[in-house]
Design brief:
11 helices, Ubiquitin-like (UB roll), Rossmann fold, alpha/beta, four-stranded antiparallel β-sheet, binds iron/sulfur cluster, OB fold (Dihydrolipoamide Acetyltransferase, E2P), 17 strands
Amino acid sequence: MKESNITNLLTTDYIYLPYNNMNLLIKDGEYVYKNDLIMYNETNKIYSTVSGKVLGLTNIQNKKYIVIENDYKDKIKKRTNKKNINNYTKEELYNLIKEYNILDNFDIKSKVLVINGIDKFNQDITYNTLIKEYTTIILDCIDALIEIMGIKKCFFAVSNNDSECINILVNNMGTYPKIDLKLYNNDNIIGNKKILINKLTNYKNKNYNIQYLNIIDVINLYNLLKKHIPNTTTYITLAGNLLNYKKVLHINLGTNLYDILKEYNINDLDNMIINGLLSGKKITNPNFIIDNNIKSVYIEKIEEYKEIECINCGLCTNICPVNINPKYMYFNDDKKSKKYKEECINCGMCSYICPSKINLTERGNKFDKK
Ligand code: SF4
Ligand code: SF4
């Protein structure tokens, strides 16, 4: 039997779902099933990621969460879907996505489909691992989306740093002639949505609406079409030079980082970095709730350098993938600097290359952006 490279960690004691003053459909003490809709507002719907008892509201790092006590039974209300994933109309797909709030950027008029199989942070291994583990599911789902949406051109971008992943894909691509596989060196930025879309579509597809999906979106869409279930889980890379392994964890949305660290006996709380080593954010409090924006957790000892004065070498500007002036952005606070902060994709390359060790992205940190 093939050994899985993904570790399921779906049995933490409590789940924390972001409240944000939404309309509640549950009361304290009530029993909820996994996948039950428990709160909503005009733009968002939150489903329970486990079955269990609602304990009420709690405050974590100035955010309010509804706490659910996991009963480990994963009880779900029965759903009956016998439809093949190809057997949907465009409208049915659109309505399902809306009903289950699977994507916030679905454009039914799209004629170009961009699938991002390259992790946003180049040390992460989540997407390559998912592609290897769920090759057929992913390709079947992309193929079904092409048919349902009437897609004219579909690009599937994959990092070529994992030869096993490439071999598996290439061996399977014969049956999916409509998917155009694109291999790239993951130079830390190609997994960024804006950069990838520009790279793939800047020459001839400008007139078409473009639908962008990452690999986790594709897996969520497969589950939606196959089982009519909302997205209640995510995948993250757990790595770092203080661990002797690098893993992909499959966890419930709303898992507390503290419970992950406890599971793996990680006590090094001074060296936690969220979302990539170059552009990530150091956190000191492990009481931190994982949502869809969290892609990786590194337990990494980083050498502290003392910042010295800028020597005007220009390296930061030369390396910036979106052609802005990182030094100007950092040292100024005017209109131009604000515009640069908007355009910055927070890749961290400028700070990495800077010989004066100036943390140029510190003020323009876009940690909350997807
Ligand atoms: S300013 Fe720095 S962090 Fe922002 S995009 Fe340019 S190189 Fe990346
Ligand atoms: S790379 Fe650093 S030292 Fe060189 S110009 Fe940019 S901020 Fe100054």
